[in-house]
Amino acid sequence: MTSGFFIKLGFFFIFAVIVVANSVAETIEEKRSRAEKLIQRLENKYLSNEVPAILQKLEKNELSMSVINAFALEQRLIIQSDLRNNALSLHRFGGSSSKVTNKFFYRLVVNEMSASEQLPVLIQALNISKSQITKYRPLAGAQAYPAYTAWLANYAQPAEIAAALLINFQSFGKNVGRMAKALKQYRGLSDSQLEFLINFSTLPSDFREQAIAIVAKGLASGVSESDIETRVRLIQAYESNFWSALSSIDRK
């Protein structure tokens, strides 16, 4: 009788474990689906088809070299800042139990290191002298972006950072992709000279999938969709400020 009781108890325990496992699996799938829907909604809302005015002029070969040079010199400062920002994010989250989170932030640092090596090639191709680099005065509107990414690196959660960068990289990538084509067509620059722009023009492989996985994990831990959207909305506003600030040079 005692033996039968323990056998029944064992079956009950196994059944309970299966039920709990299925419940957890369903919850993970639900969070993944919710994260995908959130990202799709944010992409639809914050990824604009609008082309910055200076790119429209560049594609007509009507943009002055001073604006193109300013783009490169602003990026020089942004890359230096974002390399530190991403290193800080890696420091904060690199010890996470999530392999996806570790790989995501490690990749950000590696990509920024590559960009920091590629940008000087573009600066040299544009014939920007050391004197011009030294004398250049950065634009407040253009540098609002790295100021905000520094805030993200210090205070935001991985889900907020991943969503913000996923949306922003697509926006920035589309614009610099157009810039690369125009500079190649009208200024005769080669692919190797334009590597900085070309590499940013497309998302790294699996980047979107990793970001969604991090967002799903964040939602499961209590990060709100509202906070995630706020980070996306602000970074996109600062991205717009960057291009508008460059346009101010063109009007002088």
From TrEMBL:
Coiled coil: none annotated. It comes from the Bacteria. Residues 56-184 form the Thiaminase-2/PQQC domain. This is Thiaminase-2/PQQC domain-containing protein. It comes from Microbulbifer variabilis.
